[in-house]
Amino acid sequence: MHIHILSVIPELMESPLSHSILKRAKEKGLLSVTLHPLRKWAVNEYGQVDDYQYGGGAGMVMMCEPLEKAILELQKENKFDEIIYLTPDGKTLNQPMVNTLSLKNNLLLICGHYKGIDQRIRDHYVTMEISIGDYVLSGGETAAIVLVDAIGRLIPGVLNDETSALTDSFQDNLLAPPVYTRPADYKGWKVPDILLSGDLKKIEEWRYEEALKRTQERRPDLLEGE
Ligand code: ADE
User: Fold this and answer.
1) Does residue 212 surpass a pLDDT of 90?
2) From ligand 1's centre to the CA of 188, what distance in Å?
3) DSSP readout, the chain?
4) At 208, is the pLDDT very low, low, confident or very high (cuts 50, 70, 90)?
């Protein structure tokens, strides 16, 4: 899986990509993430990539030309399955979308800034628009990292215990059950006996009941489609 990210502040994403699971995915050769600084395709020597919006109003808009030049140049070397624009007015990201995207080979993510990107790039190049939630971030970079993280951990071989992604919250429309580790008794706060019983069937049943209870209490909307 190759993910290319186009951004005015690529440095913002370096740290999350260099640690933990994403680092491991890169080291194992299962995921490559390439950051492309949009200013490389700026319209002048001052590095300009944005301009005032037509019709007036506060906030700058990212211009067509740098974005188009960048996309065309990257398309010469890559066949993108999707060109994704991260934007608060996109489709809200959920686990089924992440599952689908994790099966692709080559993605280009575009991070917006200021008031967003010129609509014409959205009309003519972008194939998917994704929001990571109903709130506004100062740029698409943090959203891009969320997306890369969610996708990266689903690539086979990235997680040590392959089953652990399957038991994530949301994979079966249920939130995850509570988890405990040693000690079994911490200051009198005890781990439920069933988890210490060694009876795997009973433990599975308990986990399912707890997951269901938690989902009913916190996210009944997840159960509605059933
Ligand atoms: N850019 C700004 N806010 C965003 C959001 N909520 N999701 C995706 N991209 C964004």
Assistant:
1) yes
2) 44
3) -EEEEEES-GGGGHHHHTSHHHHHHHHTTS-EEEEEEGGGG-SSTT---EEEPTT--SSEEE-HHHHHHHHHHHHHH---SEEEEEEEEEEEP-HHHHHHHTT-SEEEEEE-BTT-B-HHHHHHT--EEEESSSS--SBHHHHHHHHHHHHHTTSTTSSSSTHHHHTSTTTTSSPPPP---S-SEETTEEPPHHHHS--HHHHHHHHHHHHHHHHHHH-THHHHT-
4) very high
Best residue for ligand 1 mutational test, from 128, 136, 141 (most atoms within 8 Å of Cβ): 136
What per-residue confidence (pLDDT) applies to 168? 85
Q: Could you report the per-residue pLDDT of 68-104, keeping only the tens digit for each?
A: 999 999 999 999 999 999 999 999 999 999 999 999 9
89, 91, 98, 131, best to mutate for ligand 1 pocket (most atoms within 8 Å of CB): 131
Give the predicted TM-score (pTM) of the model.
0.94
- Looking at the chain, the whole-number percentage of residues with pLDDT higher than 90 is 88
Q: How far apart are CA 121 and CA 39, in angstroms?
A: 17
- Judge whether residue 62 has pLDDT over 80: yes
Q: Please name the helix (run of DSSP H) or strand (run of DSSP E) that holds residue 89, with its range, or none.
A: strand 82-92
Assess contact for 197 and 204: CB atoms under 8 A: no
